[in-house]
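Handoff note, outgoing to incoming analyst
You'll be picking up this chain. Sequence as last confirmed:
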Amino acid sequence: MPRSELLTFEEITRIAKLLVNNHGFNSIRLTGGEPTVRAHLPRLVGQLAGLDADLSLTTNGATLRGSAADLAAAGLTRINISLDTLRHDRFVELTRRDDLDRVLDGIEAAKEAGLDPVKLNMVVMVGINDDEVLDFATFGRENDVIVRFIEFMPLDASGEWTAERVMAHHDIVEAIQARYPIEPMTRGSSPAERFRYLDGRGELGVIASVTEPFCESCDRIRLTADGQIRNCLFALAEYNLRDPLRAGASDAELGAIVAEAVGAKWAGHAIGQVHFIRPKRSMSQIGG
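Most recent structure output, in case you need it:
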């Protein structure tokens, strides 16, 4: 995408400031694609860290050894690392690069930098990596990180999603419960249902967007890299903030666009129903 179509750090910060100060937003997450490929990312983190909001970042973790300390120094407080396998051959097959050791080292770098909590996002896919659910639970317990098991959603770039590939929430919980007794924690509006290990060895989360959707409590919207507001991962419509912002729109005028987007939020995403329509943008283009 041409750089001129991307929001500048100053434009991102202005929109974030508007949402936090005028519209009650209390959480900001930087996602991707891969946010760490954006040049001078710590500068953006520093600009956003001055707002009264929890600031986090989701990354593939491959470059964290060289960037975690700078991100933490700039004001990042916690981090999510996307990792779908702990096996080298499978990692190469899924990602087309041999970076598992770099990601594992990046997890340690994030912890050393003081980012807390460090969370791992594992998308569970039947027949691909569902046999690693317990491995990830063990890894989280032994390495003091929180694993979040995510149901496979129809937002993959290849468009190969099928319902048969989804390992359902209850199957994930059952598999872990059989080895490590757990109990549910208070959820709130978080996408993840949280569980604690009864022996005190931390917690885990399950994001069941497909089999147990949480749409009625979802309070999140997304600002894309090119300045579009999306009121749901599965939204078909986008609301343009970039062009009005560059045309000199006031905070009130930008806020009205945000309010329109939030007001149009659907009751549910309709995955698995006959009228479900897959969005044109994949997860890598709109962020998690």
